[in-house]
Design goal:
This protein has 137 residues and is α+β, with helices and mostly antiparallel strands. Helix content is 34%, strand content 27%. The strands form two sheets. Strands 1-2-3-4 form a four-stranded antiparallel beta sheet, with no helix packed on it. It has a four-stranded antiparallel beta sheet with strand order 5-6-7-8, with helices on one face.
């Protein structure tokens, strides 16, 4: 009996670990996770975006997300070359106002993005999403 209990606990812990200890579970295998240094969205097949997530909203079908894509910004603005010290690079990163936007249709596993704000707004309207999913309110 003792071994069955231990075995059951191990299986439960293994299954829970597959969700990467989500900060929020949206459904359909999508969750908001802080497993890495940056908050990001994990999908059933892969991570969505680079993170960190600045804002996200969801309903039973869609997730909308605004993120500040760390690697893209580091490359685009040359932050790797400007400083070899992490605190200084982080300060430069935080000062840059560059964002990517995403829309995720969870039931059909469709991911739209990354978009810049104007493209995101166009797709948002095209999909007829409710105002409650706007990430820049």
């Amino acid at each position: 009996m003792y071994y069955i209990l231990i075995f059951s606990v191990c299986i439960f812990v293994s299954i829970q670990g597959c969700r990467e200890n989500p900060e929020k579970y949206f459904g359909y295998g999508y969750s908001l996770s802080n497993k890495t240094d940056d908050l990001h969205i994990v999908g059933p097949k892969c991570n969505i975006g680079e993170g960190p997530v600045i804002n996200c909203k969801s309903n039973v079908q869609f997730i909308t997300m605004k993120e500040k894509p760390r690697m893209k910004i580091y490359d685009k603005y040359g932050l790797w070359k400007k400083s070899n010290r992490e605190p200084e690079r982080e300060k430069l990163f935080n000062a840059i106002k560059y964002y990517d936007y995403w829309i995720i249709d969870m039931p059909v596993d469709s991911v739209y993005g990354p978009y810049q704000k104007a493209e995101f707004e166009k797709k948002f309207d095209e999909l007829n999403l409710p105002d409650s999913l706007r990430v820049d309110k």
